[in-house]
Design brief:
By secondary structure, the chain is an alpha+beta fold. It contains 5 helices and 4 strands.
């Protein structure tokens, strides 16, 4: 511990950078520990083709970073969306810092960005933190088969 000559006791200097690193590590652990199939899967260049483009089910891809406050703000809404669409749409995440090539390829300029894929094609794009209702409405309006509701229960439930 550094010693300050103006005080009779040693003081601990805590840098804001150290504090931010600790907070980011906590948020990354929490996001990586999300339960349920799909959202725990971090997709990258190696498995993007097989997990997203060739998926039999539609896939909602979340481009995120652990340091982004907007990504952390979107987390509760994404958890609710994941519960609503469980079994019908797969929800995966891509760390934009670790996968800049995917971010560039899909024109990701803001975080979080959600891309909704069906049969390997981007059907919808949601930029920024959005509410559960806004995300579900966008997914519903972009679903190719209008008879197949993505939302559990009736399709009029959230209108």
């Amino acid at each position: 511990m550094p010693y300050n000559k103006h005080f009779a006791f040693p003081i601990a200097i805590w840098h804001s950078h150290c504090n931010n690193q600790l907070l980011n590590a906590t948020h990354v652990k929490r996001m990586n520990a999300m339960p349920d199939e799909g959202f725990g899967l971090e997709v990258g260049k190696a498995n993007f083709d097989s997990e997203v483009l060739r998926s039999q089910r539609p896939v909602l891809v979340v481009f995120w970073t652990p340091w982004s406050s907007a990504c952390r703000a979107a987390e509760p809404a994404l958890n609710e969306v994941r519960r609503e669409i469980s079994g019908r749409v797969r929800l995966v995440k891509i760390n934009a810092d670790k996968n800049p090539h995917l971010s560039l390829w899909y024109g990701i300029q803001s975080l979080p960005t959600l891309l909704y894929f069906g049969n390997g094609v981007v059907l919808a794009r949601i930029v920024g933190a959005a509410s559960k209702e806004a995300i579900l409405a966008q997914l519903e309006s972009s679903t190719p088969n209008k008879g197949d509701s993505l939302i559990s229960g009736s399709s009029n439930e959230h209108k």
